[in-house]
User: Which sequence fits this backbone?
């Protein structure tokens, strides 16, 4: 047995005895305490701009970096870190586009975050009772210990569906984290059944339209069934809308689409006390050192900086969807940034995309109902949040129509 395997296996064995307790604790926190915490947190959100449905730069409200409290230094600073096209928004306002905004491409595993959000939408729509429901209710083909896996286990990639294999023993759900195509495959199948389809080959686009894609105005995207589940073809605009939905805690133009507690857990590390295997058998090779990352920096099918280890020195609120080819959507709830890219750097770094962007922040840009100035193009919903001393916030909606320039 190699030293690398022995060390990794030893870490798994040491953490297995704690795993079930950790999983139960995390789920209990998200379900029982998340809603109360969310109501208080929402009071600090700034005003957001929500583009109306459609595919056009004219639908976006464009601002210069200075108008949203940024220096322009990030534009040159990101060049070594992004080989392809990208776009950046702050509080929903489009600040910069590099390359083609509307060319669509397969976003590979970046899709996983959006599949996880579909679970949140199904909970909001009362189609799924809780993340702790066994997914075998909808995927009856799961047998044995695999039938014990819940929605939570699948969207945290702790289902154990790959095991046993090779020298690795069988693990119960919640005992080991492994990146695996089996998880999105089972997830897409189960979600298709939840929304009344035969399986994910049966017009799966209807599933995500009904879940939340139509609600946030996505147009022109594609859902393609593959052996590993559903792949999405998006452009930068699609990716920006999805990021804005998460940034705004699951609300779009004043309407809750995804429960806020679910969004907060999605972008927060869920894997404490759970062992890792970064070399799984089903497209499970992850370029992370188990000595540096003995617990996966992972939320609900989303990578996270909760422990400050992936992007040292950057805000720990950063989270991101990621796929092959450098497809990325990064966001931070604390600074109102959404960044979408094809061809972005993916390595842990002390000088990565989040750090470059944060160095360019020159003001917090807290907006109120009395803000002066209008968006410079398009029309959309602006959500204004009252941030007084009261714990509860008041929500207002106003339809802003402005001339494109």
Assistant:
């Amino acid at each position: 047995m190699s030293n690398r395997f022995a060390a990794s296996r030893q870490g798994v064995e040491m953490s297995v005895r704690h795993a079930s307790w950790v999983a139960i604790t995390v789920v209990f926190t998200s379900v029982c305490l998340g809603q109360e915490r969310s109501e208080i947190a929402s009071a600090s959100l700034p005003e957001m701009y929500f583009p109306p449905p459609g595919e056009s730069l004219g639908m976006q409200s464009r601002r210069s970096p200075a108008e949203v409290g940024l220096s322009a230094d990030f534009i040159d600073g990101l060049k070594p870190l992004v080989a392809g096209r990208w776009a950046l928004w702050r509080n929903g306002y489009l600040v910069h586009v590099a390359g083609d905004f509307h060319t669509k491409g397969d976003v590979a595993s970046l899709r996983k975050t959006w599949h996880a959000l579909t679970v949140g939408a199904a909970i909001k729509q009362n189609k799924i009772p809780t993340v702790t429901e066994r997914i075998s209710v909808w995927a009856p083909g799961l047998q044995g210990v695999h039938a014990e896996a819940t929605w939570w286990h699948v969207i945290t990639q702790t289902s154990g569906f790959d095991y046993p294999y090779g020298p690795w023993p069988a693990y119960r759900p919640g005992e080991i984290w492994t990146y695996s195509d089996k998880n999105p495959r089972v997830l897409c199948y189960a979600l298709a059944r939840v929304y009344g389809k035969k399986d994910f080959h049966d017009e799966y686009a209807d599933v995500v339209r009904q879940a939340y894609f139509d609600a946030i105005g996505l147009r022109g995207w594609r859902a393609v069934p593959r052996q590993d589940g559903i792949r999405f073809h998006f452009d930068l605009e699609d990716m920006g809308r999805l990021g804005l939905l998460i940034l705004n805690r699951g609300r779009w133009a004043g309407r809750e689409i995804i429960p806020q507690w679910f969004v907060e857990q999605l972008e927060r590390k869920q894997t404490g006390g759970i062992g890792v295997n970064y070399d799984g058998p089903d497209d499970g090779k992850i370029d992370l050192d188990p000595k540096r990352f003995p617990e996966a920096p992972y939320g609900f099918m989303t990578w996270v900086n909760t422990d400050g280890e992936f992007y040292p020195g950057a805000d720990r609120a950063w989270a991101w969807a990621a796929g092959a080819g450098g497809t990325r959507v990064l966001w931070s709830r604390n600074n109102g940034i959404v960044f979408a890219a094809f061809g972005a750097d993916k390595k842990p770094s002390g000088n990565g995309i989040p750090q470059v962007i944060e160095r360019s922040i020159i003001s917090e840009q807290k907006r109120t109902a009395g803000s002066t100035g209008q968006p410079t193009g398009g029309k959309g919903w602006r959500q204004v949040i009252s941030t007084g001393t009261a714990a509860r916030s008041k929500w207002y909606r106003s339809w802003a129509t402005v001339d494109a320039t």
